[in-house]
Specification:
Elements (H helix, E strand, L loop, with lengths): L2 E6 L4 H15 L4 E5 H4 L8 E4 L10 E6 L1 H11 L5 E6 L14 H10 L4 E13 L2 E8 L2 E6 L6 E7 L2 E8 L1 E5 L7 H4 L11 E7 L9 E4 L4 E5 L7 E5 L3 E5 L4 E14 L6 H9 L5
Parallel strand pairs: 1-2, 1-4, 2-3, 4-5, 5-17
Antiparallel strand pairs: 6-7, 6-17, 8-11, 8-15, 9-10, 9-14, 11-12, 12-13, 14-17, 15-16
Length: 288
């Protein structure tokens, strides 16, 4: 590995300090560090790193190191996009479901990556598009979830849902969460959605506060193509949120199309803990 991209939570002084130390550590080993422009402007010593726009920081990188929390990693996964680049995610806050590598493990983990001695967990992603009057007006890839939510003062919204071209039902609810297995421990979990092992390939549909109590979360095959048509009144406020970070307003007649992306997010695995340990710790299983 000769080029490593570093993506950090720029408003966290601790992340900035770790980024500076990592850049120096890599330079001493003949490895070029690439950082985002807005991160570069906040670093005290920038001569050892090359800067690039956010959309290009992972271009030709052999590895992406993420310093922060799960939110920083989710944003980084969208930046990496279709590039087949492993991501080493380091948690600098509380234990995260995704950023499971601790600061103490950072340098041994990077050293193993430089030597090619590492394993990755491949995480399914989704492609979400919004069709309005026959044209695609938005197209995004997501790692966690696609959420349709009513506005603060809106009534229950009607979401006509089809799977693979076949009518499923019209959900009358406060919203709908379409989630990957990775995202099953996020917003979907708080809406009583199922916990799904992150290396499975499937898509879950979880209604938010459904009017019909028999509307329960559904798990679909990974290759399912889901279409959700907004049948709400023209004056109702409905919002689409992607990975909790990107959003747009929806209007009556809009169709949200969701399918499996053609690529995966590849996360470097921790050698000190596994997914079940993360679940036990984060959800406090076994405690009294």
């Amino acid at each position: 590995m000769k080029k490593i991209a570093i993506i950090a939570k720029v408003h966290d002084p601790r992340c900035l300090g770790v980024a500076e130390e990592l850049i120096e550590w890599l330079a001493a080993r003949g490895v070029t560090a690439h950082v985002e422009e807005h991160l570069s402007r906040r670093l005290r010593r920038t001569t050892l790193a090359e800067s690039a726009e956010s959309s290009e920081v992972a271009q030709d990188a052999d590895l992406v190191v993420v310093l922060g929390g799960d939110g920083t990693l989710i944003a980084a996964a969208r930046l990496v996009g279709a590039r087949d680049v492993p991501i080493l995610a380091v948690n600098l806050g509380s234990l995260g479901f995704l950023t499971e590598i601790t600061l103490a493990e950072l340098y041994p983990a990077v050293e193993r990556c430089l030597e090619g001695d590492f394993e990755v967990s491949e995480r399914m992603m989704l492609m979400a598009s919004v069709e309005r009057e026959g044209s695609v007006v938005e197209l995004h890839r997501v790692l966690n979830d696609v959420v349709i939510n009513k506005g603060a003062l809106a009534r229950i919204i009607d979401m006509e849902t089809s799977v693979n071209g076949r009518y499923l039902t019209t959900f009358k609810a406060d919203g709908l969460i379409i989630s990957t297995p990775t995202g099953s421990t996020g917003y979907s979990l708080s809406a009583n959605g199922p916990i799904i092992h992150p290396e499975l390939e499937c898509i879950s549909i979880t209604p938010i506060c459904p009017h019909t109590l028999t509307n329960r979360p559904l798990v679909m095959a990974g290759d399912a193509q889901i279409a959700i048509k907004m049948n709400s009144a023209p004056d109702e406020a409905v919002f689409l949120t992607l990975d909790g970070q990107v959003g747009m307003n929806l209007i009556s007649g809009d169709v949200v199309q969701i399918r499996r992306a053609s690529h995966f997010t590849r996360l470097v695995q921790s050698r000190s803990k596994d997914y079940f340990e993360v679940l036990r710790t984060k959800l406090k299983w076994g405690e009294r």
